[in-house]
Design goal:
Enzyme class: isomerase
InterPro entries: Epimerase_deHydtase, Lipid_A_modif_metabolic_enz, NAD(P)-bd_dom_sf
Order of helices and strands: EHEEHEHHEHEEHEEHHEEHEHH
Distance between the termini: 38 Å
Radius of gyration: 19 Å
Oligomer: single chain
EC number: 5.1.3.2
Keywords: Isomerase
Structural class: alpha/beta
Strand order of the largest sheet: 3-2-1-4-5-6-10
Strand content: 15-25%
CATH class of the largest domain: Alpha Beta
Number of domains: 2
Low-confidence stretches: none
Mean pLDDT: 95
Largest sheet: 7 strands, parallel
Protein name: UDP-glucose 4-epimerase
Helix content: 25-40%
CATH topology of the largest domain: Rossmann fold
Length: 315
């Protein structure tokens, strides 16, 4: 990797996560190239256009010609481009497989062994865990959605390639220029602010959570500690935020007391993952999260005085 102004290639860099990460990379002095197809017609990178070290390419992450060209200058590769979430992947199953898996496989094939990859996946690959037993990076991967399956397969390809770090993200929450209101915490806070009520399906199901700013900080941490962390997966979540959906509602109610939640007696959530997660491997590498669930909820309450319903989602 070059010693001055390392060049980072970010696919999907105009998305929910990429819009925050790209800005932070530029602020840290990296040269950044973003490849994105702008499928949501977002303008989330407008503030980056004034930067001389920023390049933007409109295109498809599955296009070998484009990737071959962009990889020539890259020291670090961050493949964010993906169809994210079970509902979106079920709607476009071919796209889910070709974008979430085959495009990553192509990147691994085209890149040189010296180029470093930091690849986000999802801890939903754990599927349904054992009650009370935290999933570690050594726990079996048993995804129960097409989204989880494609990300698990892609992670295997990346780790087999080597010179790579994978980040198994908890359910992300928080504000981004390319906002997503369909993520669980973001959705529930929206309902608390505007509807003051939510009907919860599969209220007992647990999952882990992490703020988007801490996810971005994890990428920067991985860049700074790459040799120490190389060739391993890392769970990325809050140790004190392994919560069921009903427990999440109670956390929101602490800040918005008029919010009420009801558990549906009939019907079901198509996303049935249920697990708790240990993030000790990442913490042992020296990373410490800065954003609590409460701080993120306060941020979202302010955000929802600005945005309108239906503007921001993947489906």
């Amino acid at each position: 990797m070059t010693t001055s102004s390392p060049h980072v290639l970010v696919t999907g860099g105009a998305g929910y996560l990429g819009s925050v990460l790209t800005r932070r990379l530029l602020d840290r002095g990296f040269a950044v190239t973003v490849l994105d197809n702008f499928m949501y017609r977002q303008n989330s990178l407008m503030d980056c256009c004034a930067e001389e070290s920023f390049r933007i390419v409109r295109g498809d992450c599955r296009d070998e010609r484009i990737l071959t060209d962009l990889l020539q200058d890259a020291d670090i590769i961050i493949p964010l481009a993906a169809l994210v979430g079970a509902p979106l992947c079920d709607r476009d199953r071919v796209g889910a497989y070709t974008v979430n898996f085959e495009a990553v496989q192509l990147l691994c094939k085209l890149s040189s062994p010296q180029q470093r990859i930091i690849f986000p996946v999802t801890n939903s690959g754990y599927g349904i865990g054992q009650p009370g037993v935290p999933c570690t990076e050594d726990s079996p991967l048993r995804p129960i959605s097409l989204y989880g399956e494609t990300k698990v397969k892609a992670e295997r390809v990346v780790l087999d390639r080597g010179n790579a770090i994978t980040l198994r993200l908890a359910t992300v929450f928080g504000v981004s220029p390319r906002m997503r209101m369909d993520l669980l915490v973001n959705d529930f806070v929206w309902r608390a602010v505007h509807d003051r009520a939510v009907v919860v399906f599969e209220g007992h199901c647990k999952r882990n959570y992490i703020h988007i700013q801490d996810v971005v900080r994890t990428f920067l941490h991985a860049i700074d500690h790459f040799e120490q962390m190389n060739n391993r997966p890392y769970n990325v979540g809050l140790e004190d935020a392994n919560l069921s959906k009903l427990e999440l509602c109670r956390e929101i109610q602490r800040l918005l007391p008029q919010f009420v939640s009801f558990e549906a007696q009939i019907g079901e959530d198509p996303d049935k993952r249920d697990y708790i997660v240990s993030n000790q491997r990442l913490l042992a590498s020296g990373f410490t999260p800065e954003w609590s669930l409460e701080r993120g909820i306060r941020e979202l309450i302010k955000c929802y005085t600005i945005v309108k319903a239906g503007q921001y989602a993947n489906v």
